[in-house]
What does this fold into?
Amino acid sequence: MSDIITIHGMSAGYEGRPVLSDVDLRVGEGEFVGIVGPSGSGKTTLMKVLLGAVSIYGGSAEVDGQPVGPNRRPSVGYVPQLETIDWNFPVTVEEVVLMGRAMQSGPWPWPRRSDRAEMMQLLERLGIAQYRRQHIRNLSGGQQQRVFLARALIRNPRLLLLDEPTSGVDIKTRDDILHLLVDLNRDGVTVVLSTHELNAVAAHLPRVVCINRRIVADGHPSEVFTTEVLRRTYGGEMVVVKQDGMTLVADSPHVFDLFKDAPAGEAEGVAV
It folds into this structure.
């Protein structure tokens, strides 16, 4: 299995200020990898490095054997966080999806018949073909996520990057999205996603990378989800429970003095 992502000693960030430092990471073709870490830890920055959208100050980063950079367009599909989308922009579902093929359609500024045919196949596979002429802001969060997944897939990527793909959706939609990603991975697409859902998402992946401005740990969830690793990743105490082959993570209980004025004998605190 050859590597599709190769990062060595990399520092990267914005306006001369590093967000990531001394990062080493290899991802092989066909892997399914989760990136976890607190807000501001560099998860999104790492994604943008692989897209050539962030300045690299030191070290190197390659996708499919080619150095990343603003003038290179490797075979990468990207699904951004829904919170970063401008929902006031007047665009329909099919227009969003065809944007993913815009740079691959040759010299003409409009989509080819084959582009539209492939778009319809993707929309049908993702269960949203009936919404193709609707404004994207009128869809549910799960439907919107599928639209941007279709936009990424129409590029026929070998590597699919997803930034918090299950954020803000209900449990069923989250599970549907994960099952779709598993199917795509089985079809040969390398999948790398970031998530803050340690139990619902990351604990079910075959490989997890803990990051906090640098790589803290890398391996199977049962190996990297330990009290020590999570303390170094999140900067706080977390409880790790392993039972019947499952690994579950929870915040340590905190006691707040909510009843300081209560009469003697009543509760003096509450654990959350």
